[in-house]
Structures
1.
Amino acid sequence: MTALLEVQSLSKQFLGSEGKALTDVNFSVSEGEFVSIIGPSGAGKSTLLRCINRMIDASSGEITFDDRNVTKLKKKELKMVRTKIGMIFQHYNLVDRLSVIENTLHGNLGKKSAIAGVLGLYSQEEKEQALRILSVLGLESLIYKRADQLSGGQKQRVGIARALIQNPRMLLCDEPIASLDPNSAKVIMDHLRDISTSMGITVLVNLHQVDVALKYSDKIIGINSGQVVFNGSPAAITKEDIQRIYGSEAEDLIFDLGGIHAS
Amino acid sequence: MQADFFAKKRRNSLAFLLALAGVTLIAIVVTEYDVAKGFTSVPDAVAWALGNFYPTQESLVKLPGIIDKLVETLLVSIAATTVGAAAALLFAILGSNTTRVNAFFGSISRGIATVFRNIDVAAWAMILLFSFGQSSLTGYFALFFGSFGFLTRSFVETIDEASSGSVEALRATGAGYFSIIFHSVIPSSMPQMISWVLFMIETNIRSATLIGLLTGSGIGFTFNLYYKSLNYDVAALVVLVIVAAILCIEAVSNYVRRVIL
């Protein structure tokens, strides 16, 4: 397996703030891998994810995606790279007043010329692909529904559909289940796992739930105060690692590590 | 500790009320306003209005002329609002933090809008009287500038509130600037924007009446003319027509709002 994404000595300092949001972050992700990034709130998980597709510009360091140095790209090349990276958000970030199918087709806008994009000229093929993806995600009966009439779990599945229609190499998921009930969260995580396993798409997920991360991932990256403090397989994670990621109070965390490893 | 917290809040409220009462008292003393006389004169005013200020049979002859002026005023208000809204949309897109091209243009367009907003329509009318004289064009521009400033401000807030999430999502897919505007910003903000435009039309119709007094045009001027020439019956008819028109417009815009929101 070759590395699809390589992050090298990445640092980020926000303007006007003391201390760095990210300090010397290094890791690599192989093609088709399912990687979870865990850490306390404010540790820099979202910043890290957004540096990868340059929604936020890193202060220093290198990010190599598919053999291209993302940090050095010009505007047009950056757009090209972004079309290959799907993104999923905690609050779904759909256009509430548009239908499920329209929101899904938005994933194609990056590939279109300015005029075709503005007019929303989608080909028959793209529409059929959207329908295929939506039926895989179990949304075929809702395609003409407005996004604001959907439940949270359904909205997140539309978010996934919008990312998948890009035919991405990689998905970046920023807290995809943080606003969902346990059942919808499981459906979403199962879909993400399935996308990684059966389509070979690399998935990078920010998670709050350690148990979920341990259950679904091939690899876990633990972050505390902008620094990577753990990088390894879920099976290798120990109580001390969890403490290093979440700080001293981690002893009282509400899940049981032994139970998860056993299952 | 907690008892202290509530006591402090109560003290703050009390201090505020006392300050308000103080300012009111000072204002009354400075303007030599007689509170008792102010209130007792209300019944007299009502009695006078009921005795003089009602339309009569003869005044109805003037109705077609009044309606003409009313329609002119309505059209000027609507045109000023819609043209103002188009300009405001452009400035709002440039000025909103979500969609601005860069920080420089962002502050420039917000700054321009702030200047236009903070000058009242009546002040605009007076300023523009120098350039355009007493004509409906002056009224039109006064309303246009006022609407432009106000709508830019409301549109900026609408865009930031309604579309920042989906704008981020579309930027992440690699979509271009104009695609994002047309597929995310406009669809998410349009209903709220239309609602603001309707509100602005209502407000402008009311201001247009006043502006008409200043600029010598429209229904405001008609009222002034009859009132000053002591034709209270016709002036009353003008007022009734204006009230009826405002209620109609409000009903229509409430209906549109219900449908689109």
2.
Amino acid sequence: MSKFKKKKGGDLPAVNTASLPDIVFMLLFFFMVATVMREDTLMIENRLPSADQIEKLEKKNLVMYIYVGKPSSSYKAKYGDEARIQLNDKFAQVSEIQAFIAAERASKREEEIPYLTTSLRVDKEANMGIVGDIKQELRKANALKLNYTTTQGDVSNNN
Amino acid sequence: MAKRSAPEVNAGSMADIAFLLLIFFLVTTTMEKDSGISRKLPPMEESEEDVVIKQKNIFTVLLNGKDQLLVEDELMELKDLRAAAVEFLDNGGGENADGQKCDYCKGKRDTNSSDHPDKAIISLANNRETSYKAYISVQNELVGAYNELRNRRALEIGPQQGFRDMNFIEMQKNYKDVNWPGNRKKLEEVIDQIKKEYPQKLSEVLE
């Protein structure tokens, strides 16, 4: 009798989780390698516009970043609602751009300086006034290579 | 005394530790997107001499403070801008500075529009109140117009030089790619020729 006792009760065998750490480690290593730690902490809203006729920026170490946008919510009380420039980790005036470019140039090797590119990361809601001022300062600093950094996408996404 | 074997370390929590690290890196990862529209600013020193440019060789694009687009004194939708710019650049109604006709142009050859791609200038004026997204959209369309013409030209002259089925964008990509097996020097010549035939002449004004 007992020989044919039906195996009911649905005791599913436990799934072997011995390889789980291996899988997790694999993922972990992928993300560790792919991670680029943000160099600048953004203090502004920075939603880039989209465009489709874009070129990739090469040589990341030869790029200078200028961020423009409205101060994010935690800075709104102090810095107001108007779009502002952020250089490195702090808000800056238009007049500080030339000094910033000079400092960036000083930190690079001499033969690399002609290849320095400025990446303008401007929030899509910003006005052209401030961008025009920045461009004028860049011309004065003779930093003529410019990249309007955008996301990949159709221009109709911009509205 | 018999040697006692060391007790085994319990590795059961290894997965938890790994998960913790994994989640940390997942959260901090920003897949960087560094691409955009490249431009070169004009140098500061301005030449004093006045260059006389015929009105028909200038394609004025005006973007006002309300993001409305005025092209050659007419209101235009953004989606029509690229076609209008291509038509203007590719018109080829006259001769360039060397007195050559544009034999590769496929435009209408209207004598009231641009003479030669070499002479055709797009002038982009914008207001301080213009929004950046509208400006980028317009820039994108204008670059798109140039790329369209250059791609077309690349497909025409590429096969003669042995670069089949490669448009201008791909040519530039291959040229930059160190692993590309083809003839780099020849490709550079083709790229330079196309750039010369359809030069990007874009002047910007901030009002």
